[in-house]
Specification:
Layout lengths: L9 E4 L6 E2 L1 H12 L5 H21 L10 H15 L6 H8 L6 E2 L3 H9 L3 E6 L3 H10 L6 E4 H4 L6 H11 L6 E5 L2 H9 L3 E5 L21 E3 L7
Parallel strand pairs: 1-4, 1-6, 4-5, 6-7, 7-8
Antiparallel strand pairs: 2-3
Helix pairs in contact: 1-2, 1-4, 2-3, 3-4
Organism: Rhodococcus pyridinivorans
Protein name: Haloacid dehalogenase type II
GO molecular function, one term: hydrolase activity, acting on acid halide bonds, in C-halide compounds
């Protein structure tokens, strides 16, 4: 990005995976829960299965602003189901404590300087499929700043519902064609593109703990591809 110049008026960021490393802290918590004899390969597989369960689980929830089932509670439910698949018996209190790792994610090294530089030139906001309390805690803990913190809880629905992207632009006071969705997940960017947003794909090779499990925009599907927020257009 040129110093003092941004291509768009607003940048809307996904958080888990895009801004935050979830795999490292969640793996650490799962390993602690399973004990010192836990096989590292099993721990990694369980974390990836837990993450996949989260995606599938939230899309089945019948959510609304008035009746919001906390995503944090969904993590607890999901861990129980995933442990059962792995033949592991974790008590409910251990599952609750282990699931708190999703509220203690760690920003990738480029995120804080990248966001700080970008905020001097454009509006910076989040649009995350999580609870407001979790997002506020993450930004405070990681000392990150944004002009607006928006999450699925405010909308009573999850991405990739079209209206979340449309309403986010409305809240920020920008036309979609003057804003960009920034994410490491193709489904998010495709949905944003449908309402006219520009798209920035962020390649995070270790999002799922292994390069072989990473997702990349090798075909140039999106408007921009970066590996560091300091290179955002």
């Amino acid at each position: 990005m040129l110093q003092g110049v941004s291509r768009y008026d607003a940048y809307i960021f996904d958080v888990q995976g895009t801004l935050m490393d979830f795999y490292t802290p969640v793996t650490r918590a799962v390993a602690h829960a399973l004990g010192p004899d836990a096989d590292p390969a099993t721990v990694g597989d369980l974390v990836r299965a837990w993450r996949s369960d989260y995606y599938e689980r939230i899309l089945r929830l019948d959510q609304s602003v008035e009746k919001w089932y906390r995503v944090q509670d969904s993590y607890v439910d999901g861990l129980g189901d995933v442990c059962e698949q792995f033949g592991i018996d974790l008590p409910k209190d251990v599952r609750v404590e282990t699931a708190r790792a999703w509220q203690r994610l760690e920003a990738w090294p480029d995120v804080r300087p990248g966001l700080n530089e970008l905020r001097s030139q454009a509006v910076v906001a989040t649009l995350s499929n999580t609870d407001m309390a979790t997002m506020i805690a993450l930004f405070r803990d990681q000392q990150l700043e944004a002009d607006a913190i928006l999450t699925a809880e405010l909308f009573g629905a999850f991405k990739p519902e079209r209206f979340l992207y449309e309403r986010t632009c409305r809240y920020l006071g920008v036309d979609p064609f003057r804003a960009a969705m920034v994410a490491s997940h193709p489904y998010d960017l495709r949905a944003a593109r449908e309402v006219g947003l520009n798209t920035v794909f962020v390649y995070r090779p270790l999002e799922n703990g292994r390069v072989e499990d990473s997702v990349d925009d090798t075909e140039g599907e999106f408007d921009h591809r970066i590996e560091d927020l300091r290179d955002i257009p």
